[in-house]
Amino acid sequence: MKLVKAILILSIGIAGCQSPGSNQAEQTALLETQAAIAIQSFVSTFAAQTETARAISTQTHTPIPETATITPTASDTATPSETPNLSQTQTAQALAILITPRGNGHYLVGVDIAPGVWRSENGYSGCYWSVTTKTGSIINNDFGDSGGTVYISPTAYEVEFSDCGIFTYLGAP
Q: How many distinct helices (H) and strands (E) make up the chain?
């Protein structure tokens, strides 16, 4: 702002505005001196503000190199076993629960037991199993010796195992 005032004063004085009782040369010299002082003050203030800004900038910001090369090593690279997909892990855990061997009980298909083929262990007489719909209608059942297979349809609702020992999942048909 001081620089603007100094330039304005200088241009008014050079244009011929004189104070009464002084000559043109004295007036011009005085205006030039005032303008030089104003310009020097402005430059000093600007330089000080610039240095302060630079000091703050270097204190709060770490300079970033223009180029950087990063070369990954074998230890930096993740292997699939180290970074499992969460969805796949959860699916695998849920499937593991559904295909866990089952004993006596009632199991909801797709919730407690996986659809597919199951086999009971040998050595039990009086083995009963049934596969039913949501309304309780029997889709398939058997009573007799254990050791046979049961097919559980994905559309079935519930399975009952009674006195058959342990059923083991064999897989999808």
A: 3, 7
